[in-house]
Amino acid sequence: MTAQPSDALVFFGATGDLAFKQIFPALQALVAREHLSVPIIGVAKADWNLERLRQRARESIQAHGQDDPASLERLCQLLRYVDGDYRDPKTFALVREALGKAQRPLHYLAIPPSMFGTVVEGLSKSSCLQEARVVVEKPFGRDLASARALNATLLRHLPESSIFRIDHFLGKEPVQNLLFFRFANVFLEPIWNRQHVRSVQVTLAESFGIKGRGAFYDEVGAIRDVLQNHLLQIVALLAMDAPFCSSAEALRDEKARIFKAMRSLTSDSVVRGQFRGYRQVPGVSPTSQVETFAAVRLFIDSWRWADVPFYIRAGKCLPTDATEVFVELNHPPRPIFEEPAQASPNFVRFRLGPDVRISLGARAKKPGSTMEGEDVDLVASELPEVVVKPYERLLGDAMRGDVSLFARQESVEEAWRVVDPILDDGSQVYEYEPGTWGPSEADVLAPQGSWRTVLRDSGGVSVVRDSRDEHPRSREGHEEGSPRVKPARR
């Protein structure tokens, strides 16, 4: 049966930073595409009124450069506002009144997780949850025990099918393309297993620091902030088997199986780092041991991936902003040509940002009279600029009742189970210089002591460097130490 669309949108935290940066631009884009025409009720405790909320929406849209006065005005006309404390039953009575004849509202909780239970209980007591859906923001808990408790609270008032645990990373076009590329084509499948894959590396690099979020980040750290959710979700998309059909539950079933097969991390499979100067950031403890960099080695105990290491790392104040997957294949079983010992193996690279592409790494004959080889990049796909942004896509899906890109209870809890042993294990935090690739101690986790990293030179050229290489590998030009790039024929 096709799910009925929600007939109202209520978002708690309407005056907050997330609403300004993400929600208002997403709502305006949905209105502009004529995908949203129902009442939008903002709820917060800020002593605001409706006109102040509309002004906030205009400021947000202007700040994000979405120049479409007509759709902005339509958005403002859809807005309603309820000012009240989330602990006060009167607030929820006002929400029920503002909903009017709406019977299938979507409630979006853009608030701290500590308030999820309070708000859901208030909605339930005021009869606002009948046939309703609820979207909850991350972080969904801070460890396995709190995630289980939070799930139990939500499930007391809502069925699993009505709970939408949002991870904006899953709404990104390049991440969805990773799934599509794998299962819309057949050529990867024969090699996508332990017989042919030597290792997998996943990197999420950010060149910036904490950006004024010192107090928040010092409670979270890199593992809770991005590894437990964003990066394990990418691993699941890489490692899962094909769903039997395109339905949301078939997709989520396969992801859940992979999460269950992931081996829990141990202290000898993680290296933590903290960039020099982090403790001087306002809001951060002067003795903080919170990691701003984390590297882990993960194994998946399935027939397809047994004994294949997945190397995952994320960090602040690294040399660039980039998200990349690097799947290294095995060397040929025996050499036919006299190749140097350091000759690169074949690989598949998924560049997920900031530029987006899929490429294959191969060895080709170097021009000349001798049978010498060189590395080449075969660019299989270069994706256009993203048209639909993550929050627009995810809010639109939630309004339609499409759960495909939202995390299910068991997957969330299994992801926490994977990282739970290393969250507060007291392991050493190594200092690293801003602008470097984290502490050198992380190299011991990587294959043969080296990571594949993504750099960007001053001209914006994408560069791949092995941590042991002396020369960058540029995809433009053919300089000494660099492979030629051979784009795929179109």
TrEMBL record:
Residues 465-483 have a biased composition (Basic and acidic residues). Residues 180-447 form the Glucose-6-phosphate dehydrogenase C-terminal domain. Keywords: Carbohydrate metabolism, Glucose metabolism, NADP, Oxidoreductase. One of its GO terms (biological process) is glucose metabolic process. It catalyses: D-glucose 6-phosphate + NADP(+) = 6-phospho-D-glucono-1,5-lactone + NADPH + H(+). GO terms for molecular function: glucose-6-phosphate dehydrogenase activity; NADP binding. Its EC number is 1.1.1.49. Substrate binds at residues 168, 172, 206, 225, 316. Pathway: Carbohydrate degradation; pentose phosphate pathway; D-ribulose 5-phosphate from D-glucose 6-phosphate (oxidative stage): step 1/3. Residues 10-177 form the Glucose-6-phosphate dehydrogenase NAD-binding domain. The active site is at 230 (proton acceptor). SUPFAM superfamilies: Glyceraldehyde-3-phosphate dehydrogenase-like, C-terminal domain, NAD(P)-binding Rossmann-fold domains. InterPro entries: G6P_DH, G6P_DH_AS, G6P_DH_C, G6P_DH_NAD-bd, NAD(P)-bd_dom_sf. Residues 456-490 are annotated as: Disordered. Pfam families: G6PD_C (PF02781), G6PD_N (PF00479). NADP(+) binds at residue 138. GO terms for cellular component: cytosol. Belongs to the glucose-6-phosphate dehydrogenase family. Catalyzes the oxidation of glucose 6-phosphate to 6-phosphogluconolactone. HAMAP family: G6PD. This is Glucose-6-phosphate 1-dehydrogenase. It comes from Cystobacter ferrugineus. The lineage of its organism: Bacteria, Pseudomonadati, Myxococcota, Myxococcia, Myxococcales.
